[in-house]
């Protein structure tokens, strides 16, 4: 069975949709509700992958939250989903190693394919794009 994936988005229906799509493909997914629960969920699951929205409610971005997880031991890849322009995200992406951008809207199969590649390739995956 593929590894555990943490999903974090301040839009709960979107987070649940991502989780449902990935679970149907055999992944064990946990949704961080609220996003502040990410460190606790990581501690409980030792997840291999983080799927997080870039633009979250509050002062922190998805990259800020991912960096907080790095501080508590998370070393897996991050899929950053966002409706913000990719050019802006490319600059932010440099703050975080092993970070892949997935622009909204995207086909569910695109998410599944990328998650599968990242987990199967030992958390290295394809080059971030």
What does this structure look like?
It is globular and about 35 Å long. The chain has 129 residues and is an alpha/beta fold. The chain starts with a strand and ends in a 9-residue tail after the last helix. Helix content is 40%, strand content 19%. Helix 1 links the parallel strand 1 and strand 2. It is built from five helices and five strands, in the order E-H-E-H-E-H-E-H-E-H. The protein has helices spanning 12-24, 38-45, 62-71, 86-93, 108-120, and strands at residues 4-8, 28-31, 49-53, 78-82, 99-103. The chain has a five-stranded parallel sheet, sandwiched between helices. The protein has one domain: Rossmann fold, CATH 3.40.50.2300.
Protein structure class: alpha/beta
How are strands sequenced across the largest beta sheet?
2-1-3-4-5
SSE ordering: EHEHEHEHEH
Total count of helical runs of at least 4 residues: 5
Number of strands: 5
**Outline type:** globular
Helix content: 40-55%
* Level-1 CATH class name: Alpha Beta
Low-confidence stretches are none
CATH superfamily: Response regulator
Short description:
The chain is of the alpha/beta class. Helix content is 40%, strand content 19%. The relative contact order is 0.18.
What layout of secondary structure does this protein have?
Blueprint (H helix, E strand, L loop, with lengths): L3 E5 L3 H13 L3 E4 L6 H8 L3 E5 L8 H10 L6 E5 L3 H8 L5 E5 L4 H13 L9
Parallel strand pairs: 1-2, 1-3, 3-4, 4-5
Give descriptors for this structure.
5 helices, single chain, 5-stranded parallel β-sheet, Rossmann fold, alpha/beta, 129 residues
């Amino acid at each position: 069975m593929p590894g555990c994936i943490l999903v974090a988005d301040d839009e709960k229906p979107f987070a649940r949709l991502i989780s449902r799509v990935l679970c149907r493909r055999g992944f064990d997914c946990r949704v961080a509700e609220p996003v502040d629960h990410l460190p606790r969920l990581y501690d409980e699951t030792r997840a291999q992958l983080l799927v997080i929205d870039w633009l979250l409610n509050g002062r922190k971005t998805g990259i800020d939250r991912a960096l907080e997880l790095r501080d508590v031991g998370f070393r897996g890849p991050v899929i950053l989903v966002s409706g913000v322009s990719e050019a802006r995200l490319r600059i932010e992406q440099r703050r975080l190693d092993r970070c892949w951008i997935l622009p909204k809207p995207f086909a569910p199969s695109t998410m599944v394919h990328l998650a599968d590649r990242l987990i199967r390739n030992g958390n290295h995956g394809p080059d971030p794009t």
